[in-house]
Write a structure and sequence with these properties.
alpha+beta, 5-stranded antiparallel sheet, 4-stranded antiparallel sheet, 10 helices, elongated
């Protein structure tokens, strides 16, 4: 048995599937073994928000791992600036093996709720689309001028609430591979390391039922966040300024969070990848409303986190 996870989302759980057919497993592992020089650790590149970054392949048989010279897991990278044909072929093989039963088994093994599981045919179409086109729509394509004006208006009123701005400390999230993999953008924005790939609303028992600005906002507010300019008392320190965006689809539907730092810029952590303070154009983020966010074109607003936030 091997368990495959596509590293693509930032907020919601990544899609995964299991492969049980022994002949298919041997063929896939043989192809991986012939391309070991191309494989790398997941943290080897800072691929852009909204891109298909690669595939985690967890090998659940010590005999198979030993036969092909692997450890317990392998990462197949799909960095945007690499066009190697072998990596593309490996990705195509793994996507093709995402069967209906395998996707259901993968979701169950990963503890993903049935409502968040993408049907296998839709998943294959979605991943092949991401594999063939690793460029996204920038924030400027989504009424960025209106968003910038709103941001300026809000900035003028920022003094109405007291907040705290923590120093940028990416090593806290990046240095330990387990911590990096098990904490997502919501963990990072909240500055709460739970190792649960936290989901808005899950901690309060009111998880989002759709990935839209209103639904994810409602879930985050139920966890204890406030919308900007709805102040928290000093007893709720630290009160971080964060921002929510959504990739509305079709196909790629996800949410993402940012947090402002004391240095004046914003930072974020796309899914199980490294925390960073740059956008998809590799520019330092001065405002998440106007930075290059790839397919996350809907800006949902600014919020405050708090000490009593329920996050899980």
């Amino acid at each position: 048995m091997i368990h495959v996870t596509a590293d693509v989302f930032s907020g919601r759980p990544n899609p995964s599937w299991e492969i049980a057919d022994s002949s298919e497993i041997r063929a896939a592992l043989s192809e991986l073994a012939g391309s070991q020089s191309l494989l790398s650790a997941p943290s080897s590149a800072l691929d852009g928000l909204g891109q298909l970054r690669g595939f985690h392949v967890d090998i659940q048989s010590d005999e198979a791992a030993a036969e092909f010279g692997f450890g317990t897991s392998v990462f197949v990278p799909l960095s945007a600036d690499r066009g190697d044909g072998k990596l593309h072929a490996l990705a195509e093989r793994l996507i093709a093996l995402a069967s209906e039963s395998g996707v259901a088994a993968g979701a169950a093994a990963a503890g993903v709720h049935a409502s968040q599981v993408i049907p296998h045919a839709d998943l294959q179409t979605f991943l092949r689309g991401k594999l063939g086109r690793q460029t996204g729509v920038t924030a400027s394509d989504s009424n960025a001028q209106a968003e910038a004006e709103a941001a300026r208006e809000q900035a003028a009123a920022a003094a109405t609430c007291m907040i705290e701005l923590g120093a940028y400390n990416p090593g806290f999230w990046n240095n330990d591979p387990t911590v990096r993999a098990r904490n997502n953008c919501y963990n990072y924005a909240s500055n709460k390391r739970t190792n649960t790939f936290a989901q808005p609303g899950r901690g309060s028992g009111h998880m989002y039922t759709a990935i839209t600005c209103p639904a994810v906002t409602k879930a985050a507010l139920s966890d204890g966040l406030h919308q900007r300019f709805v102040c928290f008392p000093d007893s709720e320190k630290p009160r971080y300024l964060v921002a929510l965006v959504v990739a509305p689809g079709p196909g790629f539907i996800d949410f993402h969070w940012y947090r402002k730092n004391s240095e004046g810029f914003w930072s974020h952590k796309p899914g199980g990848t490294a925390a960073r303070n740059v956008d998809n154009s590799n520019h330092v983020i001065t405002d998440p409303a106007t930075c290059d966010r790839g397919p996350y074109t809907q800006f949902c607003g600014y919020f405050y986190t708090c000490r009593s936030q329920r996050i899980n």
